[in-house]
Each structure stands twice: as structure tokens, then as C-alpha cells.
Amino acid sequence: YMGKLADLFLAKLETFPSLDVTNTVWAIAKMGLRLPVLMRAVRMETARRIVEFSFGEVARLIWSLNLLDELCVDWLNVVLGRFMECSASRSPATEHEGWAVLHVANCSARYRRRLQLWSKVEQYFQDAVYGPTQRFLQQLRCGSCAEEVQAAADEMQAFIRRLDIDFLGPHYTRSMLSHLGFIDSADGRGGDAFIPTWSLPGVPEDPELLPPEWGFVARAGVTRAISEYRAGLSEITRSFDRFGPHERRVVAWYSCQVEVRVPVAGRSGERSATICEEGRVAYF
Q: How far apart are CA 10 and CA 23, in angstroms?
């Protein structure tokens, strides 16, 4: 059935308006259907008609083709030109559709050394999303009392709602944690994602940086926990189980032994406690 729908879509692709093309490709990506012939045709047709596609449509196309592992540099160079052209006519940074900027930056990052407009795309993401988020998080860390922390949290929540984002993506979250001082010094993958020497996992031209030993243990636990979770899914539910970056449900496995120290307000000294968790799956 899906094969016949794909054949129909391919036959009528030239007649579809940009929104219909985008929504169809997005639906195919959400279902995880591998249709390389159709996706090649989509890349050719969207590149040919790229001026018809809006800011959000370009972002959804990039996200969808990335999920299907169907991105290519030549196509990205065309569509990123349109994306930046659209962004130039939009409102100030805090009113941007942050989810679009975020996904375009994350999905394109692995090809960054071969993209003509990468520096502009990255700067756009840094100005519109990453930089403001970093400033808000630093304010949360520096609050001197509960009222200040809550005020900063409320302001940041309003900012996040305006951008319509709920994370920084697979390539930039570790960089943010590093900027905030939350990365293990033994983890060679920590650092600033905006410097040219930043390495991304799985990119052939980037040197491979290994996590600390506890990272291997954690990943093994995640793999085991998700496998057990998936084993209990019904056939219908399993067909929609993608664990993709845009899903609202999250399955997390964590294990920790953290020593927390905080200054005592109004007097010298500090209070400390150790938080321990042997490992469990958390559902959000």
C-alpha cells in the first residue's frame, strides 16, 4: 500500500505545491520508509523549485531527509541558500521559529566543512538560539536567592516558548554543558561547538574522540533499556517508534554518584550531599 502511495506521489511530484511536498516527505520520514528513488526525485524537484519553499518548509525538508539519511552536500548548498534568504526577511532573533534554525544547524553540521553557507547558518543559530539560551542558563546558575532563580527561569521559559524549542539538538547539547562546566574533564568530546576544530561523532573527516569509561557503561545501559522497552510494544505502536529528536516522549536511562556542594547564604562554609542512583529507566 505504501509503495503504491509512493509511486503516486512520484508521478504527481511536479504538480504538488511546496507545502504538500514538504508534508508528504515529513510523513514518510516519520514512518521511517526507505524510498531512495523517490527521495532522489524529491531532492531534484525541490532544488529546481526552491524559490517556492518557505523558511519552515525548507527546515522540515532538511529534518526529514536527515532522518532518512538522504541528505547530500549539493542539495544542501541549494536549500541552505534559500533558508538564509528567507531568514533575512524575518523578524528579530527572539521571534524566529527556533525549532527550524535548531534542526537546520544540527542536521547540516556533519557536512559543515563542505557547505558554502555553513558559517552564516551557524552564526544565525548561535545568535538566535544558542547564545540567548546560554545567557539564560548562566543567569540561573548565578542567582543569589530563590526569587532571582525563579525570575530567571520564568524569563527563560517565555523565551523557549517563543522559539518553540525543547532542546539544543544532538550536536550542540554537549557544547552547552561544556560551557556551563558540566562536562567531565576526562571527556575529550567536551568543548566549544563553534570553533573550527570541533569534532562530531560519525563524521569521517573529524578525529574520533572517545567518552570516558563510564560513558561506555551508560551507553550499554541505554541500549539494553531501550531494547527491553521496545520488546513490549505492540506491532502497531512499534511501527511509530522512532525515538527521533523531535519526539515529545523521552525514554532515559541514568546512573550517577554526584557530590553536590552549595554555599550557605549569609555565613561561611558550605553544605554538601551525595546523590546516588544505581541505574534505572525514567519515562517522561
A: 14
